[in-house]
Structure formats: structure tokens, C-alpha cells
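Customer escalation, tier 2.

The customer says the design service returned an amino acid string that "doesn't look like it belongs to this structure." They asked us to rerun it and document both sides in this ticket. The original C-alpha cells are below, unchanged.
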């Protein structure tokens, strides 16, 4: 009996030692897993900050290029200001015409590694973190918006250097530089076929835009015109980018416009129909209007305002190639 009891005590002591080893190993695994989880979060956060810096830098350098001189020094400052530790670096690539590519990375002294990681405690190496963005810039060759096209023959659009004179662009059946409504398209302006309510997608050079003939605008424009009216009454500005055509051919629904570029019009008022939101500040008694600018006749249609230089900044596919009419685009394309 004594020998049996002794042997049992010896086995129990050995098991206690084995359990201690298992616990130590498991603690190391748990600490390592926790460190990796924290570090992965840190890496994702760092990459998001670097991506913000790359996006902002690409757009800023592209804007400077469009204005005349590519200022690549903007990139480092924007990369730093978009990172929490203000320790980022940026490289700018201008090798492709009309494109700016910015690559950002973490900066730790002279290295590009993210070294302040918990996983260093288990001998994990440093991690390289970076991001990249590309912006395109230039004169747009495509667009979408209010379904109205303007002629380059009737209005002051020379070389994109607008004088911002206030103009009335009118469509009156039988008037100068226009044609009758209904069966023919006007030579001064024309409604376009819609892709979605009150919106036409247009492109330079590859297609001719179909017309939607008649004296009144296509359906579904009341909401947009109401938004324009609200903005102007609140003291804001409405700038609409219109496609510009050089040749109009055909009649009625079978007519087409050859789009050559895009011009931005700062709108003062309009008359696209009778009553409601289809008329706004279109008489000589309205603020800023004169008898020469007013559009008062029952069948008269007009839009009143100024052509202005304008740069649209956004994201998505950039299609260059139009005539320079004072409107440019900067798009974050990837």
C-alpha cells in the first residue's frame, strides 16, 4: 500500500509540471494573437490615412497642372496632414500625359516601414504600408446633366475665354439663329433625348446626340428647376454645364446634334415653359434684368446668365478630348 501511494504522488507531481508548460505555451499564443490583432488594426488605419493623403495629393497636383504648372511639392504636405502621426512621404509620377499618380508610404526616419508594432515582441518583422491614387485632368470629352445643348455659332464661347457678360440665350420659333419648334430642331439650342428623367449623357466625337423636339423641356425637370430656384433665392449660385454643338442635322425626333465640348453657364433666370418653376426671374422687373434680357412672350423660351470658367472636381472615369470652352475636369480615377 505504501508503494502504491508513493507512486500516485509522483504521477500527480509530474502532471502538474506538464500543465504549467501547456499554460505557458498557450499564454504565448494568446499574447501573439492579441498583438497581431492590434497590429492589423493599426496597419488598416495607417493604410486608410495614406490613401486619404494619396487621394488629396493627386487631386491637388492635378489642379495645379490644369492651372499651368504642376506643383509636385503639394504632395508631401497633404500626405502628412492626412496621417495622424504626420510622418508620411509621397512620390509623384507625371509620366503619362493628363494623369497624376501619387504613391504614399509610412515614414520612420529614412525607412518606409511601420515599425511600432506589438508583434515585435514575438520577433515579427516591420511591415511596409502604402497607398496610391491617380487623378486625370483636362478638357472633358463626355458628361451628363440638364438635357439642353447650345450652339457654338450663336453665343459668345470663343476660345473658352468668356468675358462673363450677361446673355440671354433664347429659343423663339422663327427667330434669328433658331428654327421652329416641333418638326425641326433649332440652330441656337435644342433639347436632348433623356437617359434618365431630366438628364442626358453626352460624349464628344464618337456619337451624335438625338433631339427631343418641342417648345417645352423633356419631362421630369420640375424637381431640378425647383432646386435651382431655391438655391438662387437663398443667395447661392447655380452653374450648369451644357454640351455645345457645331452642327445640327435632321428634323424632329430623327434629328441629331454633333457635340464638340462643354461650357459652364452661371444661371440668373429662365423661361422653359409657362408658370410654376418653369419660369424664374425672366422679366424686366426682376432683379438684375433689363428689357433686352427679359423673356416675356408666351412662346418665348430662354435662359439668362453668364458663361464662366469652371473646374469640376470629382471621381470616376475621365474622358478627355473636347474643345476648350472654359470648362475643365479633375477626376480621381483610381
Amino acid at each position: 500500500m505504501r508503494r502504491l501511494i508513493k507512486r500516485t504522488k509522483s504521477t500527480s507531481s509530474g502532471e502538474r509540471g506538464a500543465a504549467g508548460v501547456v499554460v505557458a505555451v498557450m499564454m504565448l499564443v494568446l499574447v501573439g494573437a492579441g498583438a497581431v490583432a492590434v497590429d492589423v488594426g493599426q496597419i488598416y488605419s495607417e493604410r486608410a490615412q495614406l490613401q486619404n493623403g494619396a487621394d488629396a495629393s493627386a487631386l491637388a497636383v492635378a489642379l495645379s497642372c490644369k492651372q499651368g504648372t504642376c506643383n509636385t511639392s503639394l504632395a508631401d504636405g497633404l500626405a502628412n496632414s492626412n496621417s495622424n502621426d504626420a510622418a508620411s512621404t509621397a512620390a509623384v509620377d507625371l509620366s503619362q500625359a493628363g494623369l497624376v499618380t501619387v504613391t504614399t508610404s509610412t515614414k520612420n526616419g529614412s525607412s518606409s516601414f511601420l515599425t511600432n508594432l506589438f508583434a515585435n515582441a514575438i520577433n515579427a518583422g516591420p511591415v511596409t504600408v502604402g497607398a496610391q491614387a491617380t487623378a486625370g485632368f483636362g478638357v472633358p470629352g463626355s458628361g451628363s446633366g440638364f438635357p439642353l445643348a447650345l450652339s457654338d455659332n450663336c453665343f459668345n464661347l470663343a476660345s473658352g475665354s468668356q468675358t462673363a457678360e450677361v446673355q440671354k440665350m433664347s429659343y423663339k420659333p422663327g427667330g434669328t439663329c433658331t428654327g421652329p419648334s416641333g418638326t425641326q430642331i433649332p440652330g441656337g439650342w435644342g433639347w436632348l433625348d433623356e437617359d434618365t428623367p431630366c438628364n442626358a449623357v453626352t460624349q464628344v466625337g464618337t456619337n451624335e446626340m438625338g433631339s427631343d423636339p418641342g417648345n417645352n423641356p423633356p419631362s421630369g425637370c420640375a424637381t431640378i428647376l425647383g432646386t435651382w430656384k431655391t438655391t438662387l433665392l437663398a443667395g447661392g449660385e447655380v452653374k450648369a454645364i451644357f454640351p455645345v454643338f457645331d452642327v445640327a442635322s435632321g428634323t424632329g425626333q430623327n434629328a441629331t446634334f454633333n457635340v464638340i465640348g462643354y461650357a459652364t453657364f452661371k444661371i440668373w433666370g429662365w423661361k422653359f415653359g409657362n408658370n410654376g418653376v418653369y419660369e424664374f426671374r425672366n422679366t424686366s422687373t426682376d432683379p438684375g434684368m433689363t428689357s433686352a434680357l427679359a423673356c416675356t412672350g408666351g412662346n418665348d423660351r430662354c435662359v439668362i446668365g453668364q458663361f464662366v470658367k469652371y473646374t469640376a472636381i470629382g471621381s470616376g472615369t475621365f474622358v478627355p478630348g473636347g474643345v476648350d470652352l472654359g470648362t475643365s475636369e479633375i477626376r480621381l480615377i483610381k
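Tier 2 assessment: The sequence is consistent with the input. The first strand starts at residue 88 and ends at 93. The mean pLDDT is 76. Sent an explanation to the customer and offered a walkthrough call.
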